[in-house]
User: Fold this.
Amino acid sequence: MTDARGSAGPNGDTPARHAPGAPCWVSLMVHGLDATEDFYGALFGWEFQPGPQQLGPYVRALLDGREVAGLGRLPPDRHLPIAWTPYFASENVDLTAETVRSRGGTIGVGPLDAADAGRLAIGSDPSGAVFGIWQAAAHLGTTVSGVPGTPAWNELLTFESASVAKFYRTVFGYEEEPVVSADFDYVALHLGGEPVAGVHGVGHALPRDRGPHWVTYFQVADADDAVDHVVHLGGQVLRAVHDTAHGRVAHVADPEGARFALLQRRG
Assistant:
């Protein structure tokens, strides 16, 4: 679980441009934007500032003044699943969108300009999982990682991994590293030899009301404490804290039902 980017400045403080194909942003569209800001602000310590309004009211979440995620308000007549959406970096969003279409995916929004921040498209893979494509201009995307309150990993839950991983490999240029196991269907997607996302085939274990979807993991200092905060703030626990090879993980949902995971890395 790493973050693929271009090189930063010599002191490490200069925001780095994300390498093409790297997860570069996560965004959540909700009905109650103010309440959602309150939830994530209390959970992760985020503060908020206005962002581009092309798709309606939108704010960027900041952690210690650095951008980590986006929150927007859905139009009242849009009854879409409330879900975190990962964005993957592209040097040419229009060309990437065409590749998505030619490989059996769909583009539902864009490509369109988000003021001077950049250019975006929102699409879905052949299984129906929604993701975004971001061509950076003034806004590079997430500018801090590896600390509590930041996106740490994105994982696609889908029916089976092989064909969907091939789609993402073709669109974004990933290398694949399948997990060879008789009872575990998983492919890690790599850029430059480093894992940047995962595809987990779970067959009929997918939630019937959700279908294939991406899950964003957010880093926390203490998973058990973070789960308590989620419940206290009106969210729910979907899978209790458990140990994994990467650390302690819990799957939760916010008060509007957006699913995400909490990751406490191994010390």
Remarks:
- The first strand starts at residue 23 and ends at 30.
- The helical segments are 33-44, 93-102, 161-172, 223-232.
